[in-house]
Description:
Order of helices and strands of chain A: EHHHEEHEEHEHEHHEEE
Largest sheet of chain A: 4 strands, mixed
Number of strands of chain A: 10
Mean pLDDT of chain B: 97
Largest interface: A-B, 55 and 45 residues
CATH class of chain B: Alpha Beta
CATH topology of chain B: fumarase
Shape of chain B: globular
Low-confidence stretches of chain A: none
Distance between the termini of chain B: 33 Å
Helix content of chain A: 25-40%
Radius of gyration of chain A: 19 Å
Helix content of chain B: 10-25%
Strand order of the largest sheet of chain A: 4-2-5-10
Structural class of chain B: alpha/beta
Oligomer: heterodimer
Strand content of chain B: 25-35%
Strand content of chain A: 15-25%
Shape of chain A: globular
Amino acid sequence: MRTIAASYIIEKVADMCIRANRELPADVLAAFARRQAEETGPAAKEIFRQLLENAALAAETGLPLCQDCGLAVFFVELGEDVKIEGMGLRQAINEGMVKGYKDGYLRKSSCDPFTRKNTGDNSPAIIHFDVVPGDKLKISMMAKGGGSENMSRATMFAPAQGWKGIKEFVVTRVAEAGPNPCPPVIVGVGIGGNFELAAINSKKVLLRELGDTHPDPAVAKLEEELFTAINRLGVGPMGLGGATTCLAVKILVAPCHLASLPLAVNIQCHSARHKEVVL
Amino acid sequence: MSEHHLKTPLTDADVEKLAIGDVVYLTGTIYTGRDAAHKRLADSLDKGEALPFDLKGALIYYVGPSPAPPGRPIGAAGPTTSYRMDSFAPRLYGLGLKATIGKGKRSQEVKDAMVKHKAVYLGATGGAGALLSQRIKAAKVIAYEDLGPEAIRELSVEDFPLLVINDCRGGELYVQPDLASALA
């Protein structure tokens, strides 16, 4: 049994919350630069120029990339041979998040759904736990903004609706969202599982590298098909028109009930802020 | 598409000059307001109370900035999605508001109100909060401090970069998605 001190987890989580909000992942920056070169319209090119300048300024000044520093979402893989010492893992992650959002001058966006009163410290963190073999603790953190989250949807299809129905739903969702979720977006698609698993998978899959290829060639082909279709919409960066409505489409498939075809679409804005740490 | 350097407050003549796709560099005073602040503004109007700022010629920026770090007037300050304020905007345009600033689509009612009251909707680049923060020279909370990031702030801006999304003649800059071609 390996022991990890809760105080160490708090420090690491605080640091990853701050850095996630200031530093865009390298794959996202590379996609901006490539797409800036490929776009032909001046408006689309100008948006990418601003986004690259914004990223450079955030790194230089320590300001967050976006004022919406999001709800803090965590995907945690806890090794079966790891013991946390000092406090519970959920509490440690939440305390680290609160510390990071305070010390990093990040916006606290969590509120009561009825009174709309701000909880004041961005808590509670939304944490999805998984237990895995081994003696490591892997924590992935996403700063997920409200604008893109509001454009996300889940539905329960009849099995007969199949791939055609799935494709129509996903592409129509991105079209209807239009400029609202800050395109170019990254589209996470959860297919199968059940009602809640499809939704969780549609978010979890957003942690993949933008340029990676799905290990199952059949799913990789579906991702490519959706990517091509969405970019034919012409919405473009910030809805001003162009060839880049999405930077990537990522699909996570899970077995489902005989009666169901669960489907969830999680839309991620271009400010795709996430960090991973393995302890 | 032309470029305009405008000073606040805005006049009808300023607004009439603007067409979709024009770039505006705005200098002067603007007011922040998003979901919760708009609810309170509407409640105040219902009760016949004075608003915390003069709407005549004014601009409201839909933003909830991140906290100001030491040595800066404000944190990141990019636009939030505007449709959530659509139910409030026509009434405010009717009372003299000349422009709203945000990102994303507006309802037909809001577009009609802009035509009727000679007003515009200006887009700022979403997700460029650190960049836009550089053009904000001063910020102070003037109402609803308890709302935290949603409090109404008076911002002094210099050459704040904006794009005309909806003009006062019913024009719209946003592209209509080509769903037929995408699903062909």
